[in-house]
Amino acid sequence: xxxxxxxxxxxxxxxxxxxxxxxxxxxxxxxxxxxxxxxxxxxxxxxxxxxxxxxxxxxxxxxxxxxxxxxxxxxxxxxxxxxxxxxxxxxxxxxxxxxxxxxxxxxxxxxxxxxxxxxxxxxxxxxxxxxxxxxxxxxxxxxxxxxxxxxxxxxxxxxxxxxxxxxxxxxxxxxxxxxxxxxxxxxxxxxxxxxxxxxxxxxxxxxxxxxxxxxxxxxxxxxxxxxxxxxxxxxxxxxxxxxxxxxxxxxxxxxxxxxxxxxxxxxxxxxxxxxxxxxxxxxxxxxxxxxxxxxxxxxxxxxxxxxxxxxxxxxxxxxxxxxxxxxxxxxxxxxxxxxxxxxxxxxxxxxxxxxxxxxxxxxxxxxxxxxxxxxxxxxxxxxxxxxxxxxxxxxxxxxxxxxxxxxxxxxxxxxxxxxxxxxxxxxxxxxxxxxxxxxxxxxxxxxxxxxxxxxxxxxxxxxxxxxxxxxxxxxxxxxxxxxxxxxxxxxxxxxxxxxx
Length: 500
Prior knowledge:
The protein is mostly helical. It is 70% helix and 1% strand. The chain has 21 helices and two strands. The chain has a two-stranded antiparallel ribbon. Helix 5 packs across helix 7 (151-175) and helix 6 runs antiparallel to helix 7 (151-175). The chain is globular, with a radius of gyration of 23 Å.
């Protein structure tokens, strides 16, 4: 039987990087062919990660990957202003803000849109090759963005190339941690989350200074250097989980006895498992998350421009993005520990509170009478961001179980791509139409509140389904085959250890 490790639990301990959040729920790369070492007696000894050693080098590489990728994406508010300045000379287009917003939205949306596809590539060619290829694509995207002033070309170079490359580089950075850690996986994820903040938090301030000194084109070249370094760091993603020759041979024998059509259908079902959508609770949860993130990127994209217009603040506007990044990192570290203490699907209420508060805070931004008030709101916005992204994977484990959690998170991120991509351009259109950002922030606050209300019914429906299941079967089995206590099955841990 082919055994596969699950990547999703990297976030299941609650201390991995988002989307958010995340992000992260795809099946592992080379580790997907997890095998077992044969003892002399003929019994299979489960593989045990080294819990350190070279793994700490991998942790450093993963921290650099998370910090540089999401640091650039979350600092787009600075690049957004530079893009408008670069295009504004002689450009009287009234829809300029709407069109410019698509550059950053496409890039962030591609991270989520490509997530299900990345799982297939990591499954087939491994973590190291996938991550290095993704970093190379991201490098080409950023570098080529420096050689053009056309907004339409930057839709492709920054929005598509850099966004796609970021997705392919980011996800293997979480998968590979399960190859080296099991007992210390929480610590490793915590170091990755905290270490990435050392890059992402000061990056807006760095971009502000560098952008004014050397201009937008050279700023893109400087940012591309971060991705160039990531290409070499990705080479440290050395898989150590031994492949299972027997299971691979068994799979080949089974496929060899089938027709070409049956083989194609079998492989398609293997990598595109749609059975998780049969679960009512998963469908509602995924719909609630996708609804809530419609205005998720609006503060990141528009706050800097907003305070410049509203408060004429141009020297300290970078502080807003630093506060968002710092508190998001802190929220990720805290949310994991809190999530471990909350049993079952009650974890969703933590996500409900995060989205509800996030929506209210977004609508409070236009009410601020001073720059300091916006800073306070940004601190809490960052905290909410860290909470809802970190708890995403543990909830997926509770809903669909460990064997399907990777696909569940991957499909969820794919569903999030469309609303996340569309939110910022809609906010830009509202700004162009009304002449201010007030309507944009009010708009950004509504979807998280609606999404939180949808999510709040999931535990109730789950409990009702459990009661009905008990009455029908007469047995007291509380999702023994559907839910696993958070942290029971970790990335890089062979499926045989789960006693499935």
